[in-house]
Amino acid sequence: MSNSQEDKKKVKKGCIAVRVGLEEEDGGFQRFVIPISYLYHPLFKRLLEKAHEVYGYHTTGPLWLPCSVDDFLHLRWRIERESGHQSHHSHLQQHLPSSLSFHSC
């Protein structure tokens, strides 16, 4: 499926499509559909700030995120884990681990 066809796929209500990857990665970019609630998570907000620095506000199609697919999957895992334990662990530190790498183009 071409990128333009993939970008036009329907996204269910309450979700947003994002495109993740770095140009130097072998797998290229990958599309993910994530809950809108991620946009309010402190870890994800840091990534959104970096996306603004790299790509600006005006893009078409999915939201582009400047991190490797592996780092995004780790970030998604952390958000899911913290969301599942939020009521029990509201004191969790909200910082990005040093292993996550956000790259500029």
From TrEMBL:
It comes from Salix purpurea (Purple osier willow). The lineage of its organism: Eukaryota, Viridiplantae, Streptophyta, Embryophyta, Tracheophyta. This is SAUR family protein. Signal peptide: none annotated. Pfam families: Auxin_inducible. It comes from the Eukaryota. GO terms for biological process: response to auxin. Belongs to the ARG7 family.
